[in-house]
Amino acid sequence: MAVEASDGPASFKRSSASKSNQLHSEMRNSASDRKESLLEKKIPKCDDSEDEEDNMSLSAIRMKVTHDNDKKATPNALKKSYDDSDDDDIPLSARLPHNTNLGESTLSVKRPLDEIGSLHSSSKKSKLSNPGSSINAKQISVKSDAKVEEEEDDDDIPISGKMNKVVKLVDKPSSSKKLKNVTKVNKGAAPSFKKKEKVKKSGNESEQLSSGDGQKKWTTLVHNGIIFPPPYKPHGVKILYKGKPVTLTPEQEEVATLFAVMRDTEYMQKEIFKDNFWNDWRELLGENHVIQNLKDCDFTPIYDWCQIEKDKKKQMSLEEKKALREEKIKQEEKYMWAIVDGVKEKVGNFRAEPPGLFRGRGVHPKMGKLKRRIRPNDVVINIGKDAPIPECPIPGESWAEITHDDTVTWLAKWRDPIKPNKLKNVSLAASSSWKGQSDKEKYQKARMLKSYIGNIRAAYTKGFTSKDITKQQIAVATYFIDKLALRAGNEKDDEEADTVGCCTLKVENVTAEGHNKLKFDFLGKDSIKYENTVEVELPVYKAILKFQKDKQPGDDLFDKLDTSILNAHLKELMPNLTAKVFRTFNASFTLDDMLNKETKDGDVAEKTAVYQHANKQVAIICNHQRSVSKNHSAQISKLNEKIDELQAVLKELKIDLDRARKEKPPLKRSSDGKNKRNLNPEAIEKKIAQTSAKIEKMQRDIHTKEDLKTVALGTSKINYLDPRITVAWCKRHEVPIEKIYTKTLLEKFAWAMDVDPDFRF
DNA sequence: TGAGCAACTTAGCATCTGTCTA
DNA sequence: TAGACAGATGCTAAGTTGCTCA
Length: 761
Fold this sequence. Notes:
4-stranded mixed sheet; 26 helices; nucleus; DNA topoisomerase I; single chain; Topoisomerase_IB; about 45% helix; DNA-binding
């Protein structure tokens, strides 16, 4: 079956960045070529089996290519294989000492990751080396292959095991005596799920892939709750109202201070921000307060006081700063860890959000509103039934509720004071097994789409001309999501910024410009502008004109569609397929494709430049933008000045070289006023080379800075690029993984470090 | 069937921290 | 050794998705 129309996918050019988008277009063409061959020739062997083969460890590669990077975390030390923990029949908790009490000194030091690896690894090797588990030999249809891929890859199975009845209790905080008792009860508890067994029994493909909503996520869960910001300390600095100092109560002063420190931000230029602040602050001031409007308030004294405090902090000695940091760590240490089924895991956000003024993005109707202080009685704690209930850190107060819900992964939650129908959750850090497993499942699903994409594209191409308007809209929307990496686009209420995604595009967001060109112009997530002019296939162009006919600005372009209809349709095409999978698929596919086409022989710097280039293309595809930093132009000017100076030096050196060759002394004084030494021609040539290299480096820096000033590379690296592509490429090309990933990302992607060097997305 | 909710992921900006340079 | 700077990390807003219930 043909995957694309014979003339290939539409070529896309973003008006604002034509060069890069031409590349984008080329990439897509090449990508589709490859996909087509995949369908016609059947998918190659499923790569997960490659994970199971013996492969050169990353640490070995690092030893080969780096000798001077010892201070950084070694990937070997960071290996924390989920494969290991998942595959064993022995529950993790059974392999770790029970009765582990969080917050005790035994847990005050982070368990080294290599130790975690050693806890799990022994039984893995034997299983992984089992040739019988390889799926290389399987040559079956595309869909079957994809299914096999899932089944063979044990790691894709949700952590969750059997369904467990949710037990909910409402407890009051217990005494320490009670905590000890509960800990003892916990001693005997052991996780009972066996993932591997579950998979083999289950014949339901989608169930295997699902992240397991409503399924049991843990058996034992121990943690210490969350920490709250210290109470407000009044400073007593008065604001001026009509030029006269006004005394405020501590509550009024606290909110005034939150406003004062916003002086240099763009929020202060927005009337909604100031209006919302005034409404909330006025309530605190009371009706008969001397302050009757915001316009006559001068917050400068508080602003100045804050600046002085900031400077004082800056001026502290290194020792003082270090002491403060250590004190903070000491206070927070016990909140930083949780024990899940006997495994110590890092907690992500264990601090309650401090009070502040709401900083909604774009034109948000609630910006400037007071986000009140979160108190323990706002917070629901989720913890193991037998675990000690965390002590409430604020004396005299208590948690809102204690639950023991083993079907969720949050440790604590509270209602967002700004949007009361939204919850804020405290969960494990990105480096945790839960997040790692979920990440891997995400990439496996995206990888699975590779096997289906040909059929999906053929289906939506057919749908472009469907007489059923709903089917036609689904087809065009899917095309946009696939080709332009648009987000699904849920409905939003009036209390949010007015942004759109694919399903919520308005008539005015897409303009037909003739010659099959469509101009997209809208605000997407975070009110980031999406502006792109693309050439589409003729039936798509015609369909858009049809959808716009007889509609007014403000009307929905896809009036027969919403995200649930779209996703329901996608699920008919591939198990568990949703709109967002396309973004992951296209991002990872592009990286894989570009790295493999563009990496040439060269030094590490050249190879990392190739990676950065590919990363940038993905960021452009996903429309990951950032605002130009405040001092960008200053930095560029400074670099240009330095280049000018160096060029003057270079000029002088060339004269000196000329003179030296004629055995004449250098010019008496150099341009910077310093006396010069008498150097031989070789030494001057060396200096010339060094100076030229400096100039070249600075010119490259300027180019890179300009090139990336509005592109955010991090978002795609963290959320869209399958780390196995990166790790395998690093292994193949002897690039130290530390050149690509920070320490934190190495921890987050620990599950990917064992990948075979031949891995392809 | 659709609204509302809950859970979790994705996102950009602010702040912190470590390194480089004068 | 201080200040500048870049990169790393933290924070929290803003999405997507799936489920429940009327």
